[in-house]
Amino acid sequence: MKIFIKNSKEIKKIYKSCQLAVEVLEMIKNYIIPGISTEEINNICHNYITNIQKAKSATLGYKGFPKSVCISINDVVCHGIPNKKEILKNGDIVNIDVTVLYKNYYGDTSKMFLVGNNVSKKSKLLCLTAQKSLYKAINILKPGIRLYKIGQTIQKYVESKNFSVVRNYCGHGIGKNFHEDPQILHYKSYDYGIILKSGMIFTIEPMINIGHHGVYVMNDNWTVKTIDKTNSAQYEHTVLITDGGSKVLTIRKEENIFIKK
Ligand code: MF3
Ligand code: CO
Ligand code: CO
């Protein structure tokens, strides 16, 4: 296990990649309406990343993943594959997960979109709880904190709202590699003794379900779904540990108000 501490030059580059990923999420929001296919959303993102940003999608071809973003609807937990037969409908909740590679550094972020005006109260609360659990975790970050506290914080909050935390997927260190050490669990596990240090960069990306936390992978070998068919939500940020606390490298304009400094 090797956790890289990033220097200021690397941090700048990772921040740039992160902001490109953010721009994709901001660009795509007006397209998230009933009737559009996930393939069309993918293609708009792909063209934007490739032609406007002159960057690369990190997911395209990653371990054989065939598309440029992951799009996960309703009971899909993560790694949904965009498809021309899959059409967004009024009331859906959708995660779009964007990872950009620019000048050899990665940036990774995702958020939920509500489709149309008919999303159920429960699903709205699910999305908000996923987002708030991420913020709660971000707000404890600073040098000296034990890594397991992140998962503990997320799980405690999510379960207080009577939702469940998916165990099978985790956040990850990121930089010159898409996924590197450490693994960031979103539930309380063992204290492996890892302590946060200034210059660490990793993602936090809790996936939470309305019902049971159990999930399975479909026959396409990618799409992850809840076993009990209840909806799932996820938010993801890439964060830097700083001397004074943390910096969210994938912060969006609309978000500033939420994060306490
Ligand atoms: N972006 C995802 C993450 O947060 C990984 C997607 S891998 C893919 O780590 F192959 F499914 F695209
Ligand atoms: Co990630
Ligand atoms: Co991601």
Characterization of the model:
This protein has 261 residues and is an alpha+beta fold. The chain has a single domain (8-255), classed as Alpha-Beta Complex (Creatine Amidinohydrolase), CATH 3.90.230. It is 26% helix and 25% strand. It is built from four helices and 15 strands. Strands 1, 2, 4 and 5 form a four-stranded antiparallel sheet that branches. A three-stranded antiparallel sheet has the order 3-12-11, with no helix packed on it. Strands 6-10-13 form a three-stranded antiparallel sheet, with helices on one face. It is globular, with a radius of gyration of 17 Å. 2-amino-4-trifluoromethylsulfanyl-butyric acid (MF3) binds at residues 59, 62-63, 65, 70, 79, 97, 99, 108, 203, 205, 236.
What would you say about this model in short?
The protein is an alpha+beta fold and 261 residues long. It has helices spanning 8-28, 38-52, 121-138, 148-160, and strands at 56-57, 70-73, 76-78, 93-102, 105-114, 164-165, 171-173, 180-184, 201-204, 207-209, 215-217, 224-226, 232-234, 237-242, 245-248.
Radius of gyration: 17 Å
CATH fold assignment: Creatine Amidinohydrolase
Ions, cofactors and other ligands present here are: 2-amino-4-trifluoromethylsulfanyl-butyric acid, cobalt (II) ion
Distance between the termini: 31 Å
Q: Assign the CATH class.
A: Alpha Beta
Topology:
Layout: H1 8-28, H2 38-52, E1 56-57, E2 70-73, E3 76-78, E4 93-102, E5 105-114, H3 121-138, H4 148-160, E6 164-165, E7 171-173, E8 180-184, E9 201-204, E10 207-209, E11 215-217, E12 224-226, E13 232-234, E14 237-242, E15 245-248
Antiparallel strand pairs: 1-4, 2-4, 3-12, 4-5, 6-10, 7-8, 9-14, 10-13, 11-12, 14-15
Residues 59, 62-63, 65, 70, 79, 97, 99, 108, 203, 205, 236 line the site of 2-amino-4-trifluoromethylsulfanyl-butyric acid (MF3).
